[in-house]
Amino acid sequence: MSIKDCFSLPVSGADADAVRGYDRYVAEFLSYGANLRELFAIADENPGAPLLNAHAAALHMAFEGAEGWDFAAPYLARMHAHANVTNEREQLFCAAVGAWAQKDFAGALTCLDELTVRWPADLCAIKWGQYHAFNLGDQAALLRFGQRAAIVHEGAPYAHGMIAFALEQNHRLREAEKEGLRAAEIAIDDAWAHHAVAHVMETEGRAKEGARWLDHCAHTWEKKGTFIRDHNWWHAALFRLALGEHGEALAIYDARLWGEWPEFPQEQIGAVSMLWRLELRGADIGDRWTPVVEQARKRAGEHLLPFHDLHYLYALARAGDDGEADQFLASMRNHANQSGSESGVIWRDVCVPAAESLADFVAGRHEKASAKLAPVLPRLQKIGGSHAQRHVFVETYKACTNADQRSITQLQ
Question: By C-alpha distance, which of 365, 364, 369, 368 is closest to 397?
Fold first, then answer.
């Protein structure tokens, strides 16, 4: 007989100690805790438990760098080797992870969609579903998963933060703020809820209130994982930019956004994004690009997520080596041409022209940059990322058109 987890769902091939370890992982995962790595040892000790090994593989791939796939390989092998002992729910989760391993992110989303319709009690699967929906720019799916969380997990810690962010990304701002504040009342350390409320305030131009909100919440992030801690501080810096406090934004960058885990793609993306915005506002960022560019170079050729690639391309272009940026662009075009139907369309028709526009912008070819960027702006959600994260492309487009207007004025 299978032992049941914290959601009263059976876990195949695992003893009571292993399931208790899995439950600790679930709690860490949903709360963005700092001890997720403990799952790897539990999976290593239980090679005959496919679900545990599938989650371990997922954690490695969620690193969002090529090495994540390398580290995931032994867990994927165990998952496949013992697939015969799984129940239907576990089979669907393993199928999602298997599709993910093949970089079929849409396929992973489809499997998690079916799983959570049938077993909405599996809040961990719902969270993974939202992860893929977010990266695919599928706001409708993001909300579907959030609504499923509400079915079974009303009043549960961390569920309402998931609902809040899904509502915000679907422009239901009043509901999102209400859910986010409720989530923080249920669990004061719900950093994803803090993040959702910050998104509402950023969207509504409530920068001063947003800065106060995140300052109020920040003490709870110290025991969280790197991603959410960095990302919420990124939002705190974004509010400082909106208030014209460039020095404070730079101070947050130096203390919180760069240097803890430079090899982590999300830290790289956050750093590129913040330096990009600071320079758009005329701030002097000194030599801060140098270590970021060094890390971006190591990501050239991976082509895992279009949102990431655009930031890596910007960093390489900003380094001033046109040949390096051109080589990255050529590799991106090749990847777009080789990608599957829907994925290939997004890479080819959205990501590549956006990347070309960024290279033109950094090189001062503003008219070309704006001409390439304008047609893709309405479809940019397909590259993934949030509204707030993608707004830098709008700012860049405006900088292009303003520069063109200044050039015309100077000629008159």
Answer: 369
Digit-coded pLDDT (tens) for 61-85: 999 999 999 999 999 999 999 999 9
Cβ–Cβ contacts within 10 Å for residue 333, how many?
Answer: 16
> What distance in Å separates the CA atoms of residue 21 and residue 84, rounded to the nearest whole number?
22
Helices (H) and strands (E) in the chain, counts: 22, 2
Tokens of 382: 């397909």
- 226 by Cβ neighbours in 10 Å (0-12 / 13-18 / 19+) ranks as middle
pLDDT category of residue 404 using cuts at 50, 70 and 90: low
The C-alpha R_g of the chain, in whole angstroms, comes to 22
The residues that bridge with 3 in the sheet, in sequence order, are 11
The sign one gets for the Cα dihedral 150, 98, 94, 267 is negative
The CB density around residue 403, as the number of other CB atoms within 10 Å, is 17
* Kind plus residue range of the DSSP H or E element containing 11: strand 10-11
Contact 272, 312 (CB under 8 A): yes
pLDDT digit string (tens) for 336-391?
Answer: 999 877 888 999 999 999 999 999 999 999 999 999 999 999 999 999 999 999 99
Q: Are 353 and 371 in contact (CB under 8 A)?
A: no
Helix, strand or coil for residue 319? Answer: coil
